[in-house]
Amino acid sequence: NGLLTIAIDGPSGAGKSTIAKAVAERLCIDYIDTGAMYRAIGYKMKKNGISADESVKLAAMLENTDIDFVAGDIILDGNIVNDKIRTPDISKRASVCSALPSVREKLVAIQRNMGRKKSVIMDGRDIGSNVFPDAEFKFFLTASAEERAERRHRELVEKGQSVSFEEVLEDIKQRDYRDMTRRLNPLRKAEDALEIDTTGLSIEDVTDKIIKEIENNG
Ligand code: C5P
Q1: 5-199 adopts what CATH topology?
Q2: Which annotated residues bind ATP (predicted)?
Q3: Residue 125 CB less than 6 A away from ligand 1
Protein backbone atom coordinates (compact mmCIF):
# COMPACT_ATOMS: atom_id res chain seq x y z
CA ASN A 1 0.00 0.00 0.00
CA GLY A 2 3.07 2.26 -0.17
CA LEU A 3 2.86 3.19 3.50
CA LEU A 4 5.88 2.97 5.73
CA THR A 5 5.61 1.81 9.34
CA ILE A 6 8.55 2.13 11.70
CA ALA A 7 8.38 0.71 15.25
CA ILE A 8 10.62 1.92 18.05
CA ASP A 9 10.37 0.07 21.34
CA GLY A 10 12.32 -0.11 24.55
CA PRO A 11 12.18 0.61 28.27
CA SER A 12 11.40 3.99 29.87
CA GLY A 13 14.01 6.67 29.31
CA ALA A 14 15.94 4.95 26.50
CA GLY A 15 15.51 8.09 24.38
CA LYS A 16 12.80 6.65 22.14
CA SER A 17 10.62 9.75 21.81
CA THR A 18 13.42 12.23 21.13
CA ILE A 19 14.94 9.92 18.55
CA ALA A 20 11.62 8.95 16.94
CA LYS A 21 10.76 12.65 16.61
CA ALA A 22 14.09 13.36 14.91
CA VAL A 23 13.69 10.42 12.51
CA ALA A 24 10.11 11.51 11.70
CA GLU A 25 11.36 14.97 10.79
CA ARG A 26 14.14 13.64 8.59
CA LEU A 27 11.77 11.30 6.74
CA CYS A 28 8.81 13.74 6.69
CA ILE A 29 6.41 11.24 8.25
CA ASP A 30 4.18 11.42 11.35
CA TYR A 31 5.45 10.60 14.82
CA ILE A 32 3.08 8.87 17.22
CA ASP A 33 3.96 8.69 20.90
CA THR A 34 1.95 5.76 22.28
CA GLY A 35 3.26 6.34 25.81
CA ALA A 36 1.49 9.72 25.72
CA MET A 37 -1.75 7.86 24.97
CA TYR A 38 -1.39 5.65 28.08
CA ARG A 39 -0.52 8.80 30.04
CA ALA A 40 -3.67 10.53 28.77
CA ILE A 41 -5.78 7.60 30.01
CA GLY A 42 -4.00 7.66 33.39
CA TYR A 43 -4.66 11.40 33.58
CA LYS A 44 -8.34 11.07 32.71
CA MET A 45 -8.85 8.24 35.21
CA LYS A 46 -7.37 10.46 37.91
CA LYS A 47 -9.52 13.43 36.88
CA ASN A 48 -12.66 11.30 36.90
CA GLY A 49 -11.72 9.53 40.14
CA ILE A 50 -11.74 6.07 38.55
CA SER A 51 -9.43 3.44 40.01
CA ALA A 52 -7.97 0.44 38.17
CA ASP A 53 -10.42 -2.04 39.72
CA GLU A 54 -13.58 -0.16 38.70
CA SER A 55 -13.94 -1.95 35.38
CA VAL A 56 -17.52 -0.89 34.61
CA LYS A 57 -16.82 2.82 35.14
CA LEU A 58 -13.57 2.46 33.23
CA ALA A 59 -15.28 0.81 30.25
CA ALA A 60 -17.82 3.65 30.12
CA MET A 61 -15.02 6.20 30.32
CA LEU A 62 -13.06 4.52 27.52
CA GLU A 63 -16.09 4.46 25.27
CA ASN A 64 -16.31 8.23 25.58
CA THR A 65 -12.61 8.92 25.14
CA ASP A 66 -11.06 10.46 22.08
CA ILE A 67 -7.28 10.68 21.62
CA ASP A 68 -5.51 12.21 18.65
CA PHE A 69 -2.27 13.90 17.68
CA VAL A 70 -2.40 17.21 15.85
CA ALA A 71 0.81 18.99 14.86
CA GLY A 72 2.74 17.28 17.63
CA ASP A 73 0.18 18.03 20.33
CA ILE A 74 -1.70 15.26 22.11
CA ILE A 75 -5.40 15.99 22.19
CA LEU A 76 -7.59 14.31 24.80
CA ASP A 77 -11.31 14.88 24.21
CA GLY A 78 -10.59 18.10 22.35
CA ASN A 79 -8.05 19.55 24.82
CA ILE A 80 -4.27 19.74 24.50
CA VAL A 81 -2.82 17.85 27.47
CA ASN A 82 0.93 17.85 26.58
CA ASP A 83 2.14 19.23 29.91
CA LYS A 84 -0.53 17.76 32.19
CA ILE A 85 0.58 14.20 31.38
CA ARG A 86 4.31 14.74 32.04
CA THR A 87 4.45 14.48 35.83
CA PRO A 88 5.86 11.68 38.00
CA ASP A 89 2.34 10.96 39.31
CA ILE A 90 0.92 10.50 35.81
CA SER A 91 3.96 8.39 34.80
CA LYS A 92 3.06 5.96 37.56
CA ARG A 93 -0.64 5.99 36.66
CA ALA A 94 0.15 5.38 32.98
CA SER A 95 2.32 2.43 33.91
CA VAL A 96 -0.42 0.96 36.10
CA CYS A 97 -3.33 1.51 33.69
CA SER A 98 -1.32 0.13 30.76
CA ALA A 99 -1.64 -3.34 32.28
CA LEU A 100 -5.46 -3.21 32.03
CA PRO A 101 -6.83 -5.20 29.06
CA SER A 102 -9.64 -2.70 28.32
CA VAL A 103 -7.15 0.16 28.13
CA ARG A 104 -4.72 -1.71 25.86
CA GLU A 105 -7.51 -2.90 23.61
CA LYS A 106 -8.80 0.64 23.12
CA LEU A 107 -5.38 2.23 22.52
CA VAL A 108 -3.99 -0.51 20.27
CA ALA A 109 -7.09 -0.18 18.05
CA ILE A 110 -6.53 3.59 17.74
CA GLN A 111 -2.82 3.02 17.00
CA ARG A 112 -3.50 0.47 14.25
CA ASN A 113 -6.02 2.81 12.72
CA MET A 114 -3.47 5.63 12.64
CA GLY A 115 -0.91 3.40 10.92
CA ARG A 116 -3.40 2.27 8.30
CA LYS A 117 -3.93 5.79 6.99
CA LYS A 118 -0.43 7.21 6.75
CA SER A 119 3.27 6.46 7.08
CA VAL A 120 4.24 6.62 10.74
CA ILE A 121 7.03 6.14 13.18
CA MET A 122 5.50 4.93 16.43
CA ASP A 123 7.28 4.47 19.73
CA GLY A 124 6.25 2.46 22.77
CA ARG A 125 6.73 -0.95 24.36
CA ASP A 126 4.79 -3.36 22.14
CA ILE A 127 4.75 -1.69 18.71
CA GLY A 128 7.03 -4.17 16.91
CA SER A 129 5.86 -7.19 18.91
CA ASN A 130 2.11 -6.56 18.94
CA VAL A 131 0.69 -3.39 17.34
CA PHE A 132 2.51 -3.70 14.00
CA PRO A 133 4.17 -7.14 13.81
CA ASP A 134 4.60 -6.53 10.05
CA ALA A 135 6.26 -3.11 10.35
CA GLU A 136 8.91 -2.55 7.67
CA PHE A 137 11.44 -1.44 10.29
CA LYS A 138 11.71 -2.31 13.97
CA PHE A 139 14.20 -0.93 16.44
CA PHE A 140 14.66 -1.80 20.09
CA LEU A 141 16.52 0.85 22.10
CA THR A 142 18.13 0.02 25.41
CA ALA A 143 20.46 1.66 27.94
CA SER A 144 21.41 0.88 31.53
CA ALA A 145 18.80 1.82 34.16
CA GLU A 146 21.29 4.29 35.68
CA GLU A 147 21.86 6.08 32.39
CA ARG A 148 18.14 6.21 31.67
CA ALA A 149 17.43 7.60 35.14
CA GLU A 150 20.15 10.22 34.66
CA ARG A 151 18.59 11.39 31.39
CA ARG A 152 15.07 11.50 32.81
CA HIS A 153 16.28 13.28 35.97
CA ARG A 154 18.02 15.95 33.90
CA GLU A 155 14.82 16.45 31.85
CA LEU A 156 12.64 16.86 34.94
CA VAL A 157 15.08 19.27 36.61
CA GLU A 158 15.22 21.34 33.41
CA LYS A 159 11.45 21.58 33.56
CA GLY A 160 11.72 22.89 37.12
CA GLN A 161 10.45 19.79 38.91
CA SER A 162 12.21 18.90 42.15
CA VAL A 163 12.93 15.19 42.30
CA SER A 164 16.02 13.33 43.44
CA PHE A 165 18.05 11.04 41.18
CA GLU A 166 17.31 8.12 43.52
CA GLU A 167 13.56 8.67 43.20
CA VAL A 168 13.79 8.72 39.40
CA LEU A 169 15.96 5.57 39.35
CA GLU A 170 13.55 3.74 41.64
CA ASP A 171 10.62 4.83 39.48
CA ILE A 172 12.37 3.61 36.29
CA LYS A 173 13.10 0.24 37.88
CA GLN A 174 9.50 -0.18 39.01
CA ARG A 175 8.17 0.75 35.58
CA ASP A 176 10.61 -1.67 33.90
CA TYR A 177 9.39 -4.40 36.20
CA ARG A 178 5.71 -3.70 35.51
CA ASP A 179 6.30 -3.37 31.76
CA MET A 180 8.19 -6.66 31.53
CA THR A 181 5.99 -8.75 33.80
CA ARG A 182 2.46 -7.75 32.74
CA ARG A 183 0.56 -10.54 31.05
CA LEU A 184 -0.81 -8.58 28.14
CA ASN A 185 1.70 -7.28 25.55
CA PRO A 186 4.71 -7.01 27.86
CA LEU A 187 7.82 -5.05 26.91
CA ARG A 188 9.73 -7.42 24.68
CA LYS A 189 12.10 -7.10 21.75
CA ALA A 190 10.48 -8.44 18.59
CA GLU A 191 12.66 -11.20 17.13
CA ASP A 192 13.26 -9.23 13.95
CA ALA A 193 13.96 -5.89 15.68
CA LEU A 194 17.41 -4.31 15.49
CA GLU A 195 18.64 -3.70 19.04
CA ILE A 196 20.63 -0.54 19.69
CA ASP A 197 22.31 -0.02 23.06
CA THR A 198 22.30 3.77 23.43
CA THR A 199 24.49 3.88 26.54
CA GLY A 200 27.14 6.50 25.86
CA LEU A 201 25.65 7.41 22.45
CA SER A 202 24.25 10.85 21.61
CA ILE A 203 20.78 11.46 20.17
CA GLU A 204 22.44 12.30 16.83
CA ASP A 205 24.45 9.05 16.83
CA VAL A 206 21.36 6.92 17.31
CA THR A 207 19.23 8.94 14.87
CA ASP A 208 21.93 8.56 12.19
CA LYS A 209 22.18 4.80 12.80
CA ILE A 210 18.43 4.42 12.32
CA ILE A 211 18.25 6.63 9.22
CA LYS A 212 21.16 4.70 7.65
CA GLU A 213 19.47 1.37 8.34
CA ILE A 214 16.26 2.63 6.71
CA GLU A 215 18.02 4.16 3.70
CA ASN A 216 20.12 1.06 3.11
CA ASN A 217 17.15 -1.28 3.24
CA GLY A 218 14.29 0.89 2.01
O1 C5P B 1 6.84 6.00 27.11
P2 C5P B 1 6.20 6.55 28.35
O3 C5P B 1 7.07 6.50 29.56
O4 C5P B 1 5.60 7.90 28.15
O5 C5P B 1 4.96 5.56 28.63
C6 C5P B 1 4.16 5.66 29.77
C7 C5P B 1 3.73 4.26 30.22
O8 C5P B 1 2.85 3.69 29.26
C9 C5P B 1 4.90 3.28 30.33
O10 C5P B 1 5.39 3.20 31.65
C11 C5P B 1 4.31 1.94 29.89
O12 C5P B 1 3.93 1.18 31.00
C13 C5P B 1 3.08 2.30 29.12
N14 C5P B 1 3.18 1.98 27.68
C15 C5P B 1 2.77 0.73 27.26
N16 C5P B 1 2.78 0.41 25.94
C17 C5P B 1 3.19 1.30 25.02
C18 C5P B 1 3.64 2.58 25.42
C19 C5P B 1 3.63 2.88 26.78
O20 C5P B 1 2.40 -0.10 28.08
N21 C5P B 1 3.15 0.97 23.72
Answers
A1: Rossmann fold (3.40.50)
A2: 10-18
A3: yes
